[in-house]
Amino acid sequence: MVNSKIQAAEENLIHVYNRFPIVLDHGEGMYLYDTEGKEYLDFAAGFAVCGLGYGNRELNEALKAQIDKLYHTSNLYYHESCGAAAEALNRISGMDRVFFTNSGGEANEGALKAARRYAYTKKTGRYEIIAMENSFHGRSIGAVSVTGHDDYRKPFEPLLPGVKFAKLNDLDSVKALVSDKTCAIILEPLQGEGGINPASQEFMEGIRQICDENDILMICDEVQCGMGRTGSMFAWQGFGVKPDILTMAKAIGNGIPVGAFAMTEEVAKYSLKPGDHGATYGGNPLACTAVKKVIEIFEKEDIIGHVNKVAPYLTKRLDELVQEVGCVAERKGKGLMQGIVLTKPVAEVNSRAIEEGLLVIQAHGNVLRFVPPLIVEEKHIDEMIDKLRRALA
After folding, report:
1. What is the pTM of this model?
2. For residues 321 and 329, is the Cβ–Cβ distance under 8 A?
3. Is residue 108 within 8 Å of residue 246, measured between CB atoms?
4. What are the CA-CA distances from residue 174 to residues 192, 220, 248, 304 (Å)?
5. pLDDT in tens, 59-112
6. Domain 70-300 falls in which CATH fold?
7. Cα(375)–Cα(363) distance, rounded to whole angstroms?
8. In which residue ranges of the chain is CATH 3.90.1150.10 found?
């Protein structure tokens, strides 16, 4: 039965994903279940999307109620859920103005346009963007242009002109690239796809200083590391280094496709004007209902406090693997966004983990990534470690 479903999908879909040979059916809390009834402990959360896990009743009911009212008009009209979601998102992100998109890639695309428009309005003649090596910002042409992996970039060249790449946590490498044409610096405070690489406090502060001294916009991509993942609502808040533009997606909708880019009032004053940017489905009532309700649940249930309570236990158990398992070379990351560097093929370990009923994902540099739902408890971490040890054996 499962094989026939997989075969049907293989025959009709464009093969751009390396899918695992399971067909998922439903989820509850920290667990997913396939069509054969097998249970999987989920430490991937749909690529850090399902922060509240699966089957959250309060969120489900809010979405069902909104479907019965309205789930699309167009962006020519206001609707109540959009204004409420925007107010809530600006409040928790520390920004002033927000534009809703359908994904993280679109959010980064919009941020790049906003930075270019800012330079155009101020008549600076600037257009160059400094990005980081090993970064990942999405799959569209603009997002790929600022993604620091040749494997992602080369098949689609020539890409967006004026993009230069510096090294994360190497301020001198950034300074060497700054010119009178630089309009923005984009970085992830914690690189996800690139290998779970955290920015340092010194680096974040240094980027902010470079931007302030040269009228350059600082863009923080928090599509994956935002929304509680690192122990603060957004990672920049943990550093105390505020960007000019912030991008987000994934966990802000807990699986409903929604992203956003937000900016300070000062940037908004000189940036996008009516007609410069748009998204037919961006900010639709269903997506905005999800954002508003997710934020309500985060605050009511103190999800950030829970992350800070349970994350040290995940760190401790992963550090034990480094000490006790020969093929585990290093742990890195922050909060509930962690990774271990392996000396054996990650794909092999991933496949064995699935056999053990554990879902984890790979990151660049032979890194096994752990981004569980933020509702994870210590008992789930213990269960994960037991399954992972068998997969690593």
Report:
1. 0.95
2. no
3. no
4. 20, 15, 24, 32
5. 999 999 999 999 998 877 888 899 999 999 999 999 999 999 999 999 999 999
6. Aspartate Aminotransferase; domain 2 (3.40.640)
7. 22
8. 2-55+302-392
